[in-house]
Fold this sequence. Notes:
Layout: E1 37-41, H1 43-53, E2 60-64, H2 71-80, H3 86-94, H4 100-110, H5 124-136, H6 139-150, E3 155-158, E4 165-171, E5 181-185, H7 187-191, E6 196-203, H8 211-218, E7 222-225, H9 230-234, H10 241-249, E8 253-257, H11 272-282, E9 290-293, H12 301-310, E10 314-317, H13 331-344
Parallel strand pairs: 1-2, 1-7, 2-3, 7-8, 8-9, 9-10
Antiparallel strand pairs: 4-5, 4-6
Protein name: Putative gluconeogenesis factor
Organism: Kineococcus mangrovi
Main location: cytoplasm
Amino acid sequence: MSTPPESHHPSSTSFPTGLVPTVGPATAPVPPTSPAVVALGGGHGLSASLSALRHLTDRLTAVVTVADDGGSSGRLRRELGGLPPGDLRMALSALCDDSEWGRTWRDVLQHRFTSEGSLHQHATGNLLIATLWELLGDEVAGLDWVGRLLGARGRVLPMAAVPLDIVADVLGLVPGAPEETTEVRGQVAVASTTGRVGAVRLLPPDPPVRPEVVEAVTTADWVVLGPGSWFTSVLPHLMVPGLAQALTRTSARTCVTLNLAVQPGETDGFSAEAHLEVLAAHAPGLRVDAVLADPVAVTDVGALRAVADSLGAQLLLRTMSVGDGTPRHDALRLAAAYRDVFAAGP
């Protein structure tokens, strides 16, 4: 295996005396032209944006949802009472150093056990992160430690300081009453509902935000929101009061990245412009400067442009998919699209 890389976060003073790791990172110099970017989201959508943005800047911070209640993350959340680590693990993996060292540790983090016992389908990275949280007593320090191990090209932070539950008002679940609303609770249940999601909210309704998140947003040049599961990974960021306040006060410009396809259940029947309308309804104070969309996901360019214009945003249509008919982003195409967004200027 190659020697450990130098990575970029944080200084050794973030860790208790005696626990400073010997692998990475001494802070590497950052090109002065690289923008400071904060990417908000969770799951595969955030991994896609991070895989692209890492080609454009080292000054990259991922702010990740902490509402997952399914799979390995859900089990650890219920058993240990801490944040669900899965989406945080995926974000860290997307930022790994592009070397044998970084890719190997990425694969270790993403590995899932197959067994007949309690370890079945647990991700190694989830267990590692949970272990560091218990040892260090600080979630951000634990994530920074894993980032050092990966030689991560950026930093990963939790959206809130406590685990969250997503609650949705869903229409169409009551037979014969398509407009009757049913309350659905939990990220997995909301994401897989067969009804139509009308609105979402968080429990607790006023979760605390980490100061590192506020600082990252406040000092950013760009904030990237999406792609991802709209109601369960994207919109929740706008409902954490401290984070929402930072997003409305920052001088950073905001880019909304629309999905390549609707998500069955969660956004069935949604047009591209409907995603923007829902976003504006949940965060009326959010300034949007750019909307990035792939032409394959837009059925009415005029309607989408009209909604973008109403938000004061520039619409950029760019091919971002892998091109095989599946709704997956190509990292280099998405990076080129973000480069165009950042170059567009005020």
